Amino acid sequence: MATQTQQNKQPPLQVAIIGAGIGGLALAVGLLHQGVPFTLYEAAKCFSTVGAGVGLGPNALRAMEEIQPGFRKLYGSISSGNVTPGKDHAMMDALLVEEGFGEKRGWKPVSYGAACYERTSAHRKDLLDIITGSIPKENLRFGKRVTTLSQTDRGVVIAFEDGEFAEASCAVGSDGVKGMSRGVVLGERWPELVNATYTGRYVYRAVIPMQKAMKIMSKDLDGHERAGDAKMFMGDQCIIVTFPISKGKECNMVCFKMDDKPWMYHEWTKPVTKDLMLSDISELGVDRRLVKLLEFANPVQWALHDHLATPTYFSGRVCLLGDSAHATLPHQAAGAGQCIEDALVLSRLLGLVSSPNQLETAFSVYDGIRRPRAQRVVRTSREAGDICALKAPGIGDDMDKIVANQCQRYLWIWEHDLLDDVVRAESEFRSRTGKETPGQQPTGSLVLAVAV
Ligand SMILES: Cc1cc2nc3c(=O)[nH]c(=O)nc-3n(C[C@H](O)[C@H](O)[C@H](O)COP(=O)(O)OP(=O)(O)OC[C@H]3O[C@@H](n4cnc5c(N)ncnc54)[C@H](O)[C@@H]3O)c2cc1C
């Protein structure tokens, strides 16, 4: 349903969003609330459910609530926390991936997290459903793969694989880590930075019925269900993360395998046989119960890439958002949160644009506010990956030091003042475009008021 603002606003502006992942959808909801006309083009014929579980930190939830008031409540209806009472603020329990989870060498699982953090994760499909709920169908176009984006005097011309064309005032490329829009923004000036970098690890992913996962994992020495609470099993060759999704009915598993060779397969997902997958992990000395959980995985190696360096998030009227700008390793569970933060800041800025010639200013302000923070997430996620692989300098396999580090390392991500970002973005945009700040009267009227 169109908002009041949308009905009042006469479009000089038409935004094309490319890609309906978490980033593109969050932006669409934001633009809807700001009354900015948009069309979202998605290559797939329907929403992709690939990816299974996703956990959102407090910053991500605050950003989404700012974009779509009431989101937190909806999210609460689809997300799952730890099952053990009193572990609401525990992000993960730290264990070792080796046979016996480290218990044989005296390690007892310890939780890490923070008071500001609440443990929740959701099935990606459920998350996309609640974000999409308010977007009118006519703004969404599925089965529209963008092949080229060209900039003209009037904006952008978008060409699709099916031979169709569309015009818009600008385009936001939220087309993911392999998206084509990154080439449009960086290709001319930084061709070497267009493609994402292989991070030297791939994952297998599984969703396991929780009852089966609990049976396989059994209870720990304190009598708690091992599969019920979120767990990080660390090791130098393999890291396994498990956490509950689907209101606790399913257990999500991500199994990382370190790989010192370049990724040579032509696709980023490589199907293998089930036997190869299981031996790939079991030969590393991984606990047999975890290998049993892995039997539920799709035998597919999913190569992880990131964008460690992105010198700008925009070029002219084309702007990057989400993984196309800052794809990251998932070791801080922060990638989706950064997509939503992008969407919050960009939607507020585009809501202030009153003519297309202000678009580049909006993109430049967005770039200045969002890029330093999002790129820091990319860099520190690599560090977090090293910590979980027991090879961070000065920490190594000292589990006490690892837990101490994990208790501190996310605070700057989770506690960040997002409203300050929005205020700074809006005020910078206003000062660069000569727009007044609301509530601020022109100097002339002030003088007159004082004189009267
Ligand atoms: C194993 C793993 C675990 C993760 N866990 C977490 C977590 O717990 N918490 C967290 O915050 N983050 C997590 N992340 C990161 C998070 O999933 C991503 O940051 C986020 O989903 C990216 O969203 P996006 O919208 O930018 O891109 P995507 O989700 O990749 O969406 C891009 C969309 O664009 C479409 N598209 C691509 N090309 C075109 C084209 N040419 N034309 C039209 N459409 C196109 C695609 O079909 C797709 O729908 C994880 C990532 C991985 C790999």
Cα radius of gyration in angstroms: 23 Å
At CATH level 2, the architecture of the largest domain is 3-Layer(bba) Sandwich
- Low-pLDDT stretches are 1-11, 439-452
Number of helices: 16
Largest sheet: 8 strands, mixed
Q: Please state how the strands of the largest beta sheet are arranged side by side.
A: 5-4-13-14-15-12-17-16
Work out the helicity level: 25-40%
Q: How would you describe the shape?
A: globular
**Full CATH superfamily name of the largest domain:** FAD/NAD(P)-binding domain
Q: Separation of termini?
A: 46 Å
Q: Which fold does the CATH topology of the largest domain refer to?
A: FAD/NAD(P)-binding domain
Number of strands: 19
Bound molecules: flavin-adenine dinucleotide
Average pLDDT metric: 91
Number of domains: 2
Structural class: alpha/beta
Just give the CATH class of the largest domain. Alpha Beta
Strand-residue fraction? 15-25%
InterPro entries: FAD-bd, FAD/NAD-bd_sf, FAD_monoxygenase
GO molecular function, one term: FAD binding
Pathway: Secondary metabolite biosynthesis
GO biological process, one term: secondary metabolite biosynthetic process
Can you give keywords for this protein?
single chain, 452 residues, alpha/beta, FAD/NAD(P)-binding domain, D-Amino Acid Oxidase, Chain A, domain 2, 2 domains, eight-stranded mixed sheet, six-stranded mixed sheet, 16 helices, 19 strands, globular, disordered N terminus, disordered C terminus, binds flavin-adenine dinucleotide, FAD/NAD-bd_sf, transmembrane, oxidoreductase activity
